[in-house]
Amino acid sequence: MFLRKHYRTVVLSDIHLGTAHSKVEEVSRFLSSINCDRLILNGDIIDGWHLRKNGTRRWQPAHTQFFKILMKMMENCGTEIVYVRGNHDDFLDNLAPMSFANIRVVKEYTLDGANGKRYFVTHGDIFDRVTTQMRWLAHLGDMGYTFLLWFNGVYNRYRAWRGKSYYSLSQRIKQRVKSAVSYISDFETTLARFAESRRCDGIICGHIHHPDDRYYGQIHYLNSGDWVETMSALTESKEGDWNIVYYAEVELDSESPDMNIVTNIAPAS
């Protein structure tokens, strides 16, 4: 009999529904394979920037199906859903804070971990000077990033034709560019200092599409990554242990045709 993995908390961010590069089918399969007590949607779940620019033609049935899966999780498992606004879904600013049924829409959130530690949860864009002070540059960078993702898609179609697995060329480029590496490091240390100022034991964020699990001094820094490139999530066990889960391969369970399970949770190489 197929048993789903159960987590105390799952954190997803940067799905960017409404864009051509969102891995919505993969994240839907991942959510269909698990149970969790709490699901934190940590910003940029819906990409309002692209929807405003392109209208609703980018909205696909698969995007609607994603929200149906969330409703099924609430109905069948009693999952609590916390939606933290990001910069691409900043249209939620006029709604937050708001609660209805098992859903909360907030600008920030404090999570009490199973191990007794407190984690400040934020998308992270408010700590990014480009998005907060130079919005025009953020939009320009978004255009360049979209082109890079398009090229990444072309490259991976070639890899698939050669029988090779998915590879995030755009992630590798970001890891090799010195300014990008410096930006990520500055971002992480800034958030760690903020968590310390709030007397929290850790901080959970997204925004930079760079999954991570590390300590800055006594502060536990966690980044859930994204569902555009890395296809990753953060999971908390009932004992309070945190892990980064990478979606690599999925298969349909023969005994449960309506459930999909993650069979390989390692980063693409």
Gap between N and C termini, in Å?
A: 32 Å
Into which percentage range does the β-strand content fall? 25-35%
Number of domains: 1
CATH architecture name: 4-Layer Sandwich
Q: Which whole number gives the mean pLDDT?
A: 80
| Helix/strand class | alpha/beta
Observed structural traits:
seven-stranded mixed sheet, 35% helix, five-stranded mixed sheet, 269 residues, Purple Acid Phosphatase, chain A, domain 2
Write the layout of secondary structure elements.
Elements (H helix, E strand, L loop, with lengths): L4 E8 L11 H9 L1 E9 L5 H7 L6 H17 L2 E5 L13 E3 L2 E4 L2 E4 L5 E4 L7 H5 L1 H27 L7 H8 L1 H20 L4 E4 L6 E5 L2 E5 L8 E5 L5 E5 L2 E4 L7 E5 L5
Parallel strand pairs: 1-2, 2-3, 3-5, 7-8, 8-10
Antiparallel strand pairs: 1-11, 4-5, 6-7, 9-10, 11-12, 13-14
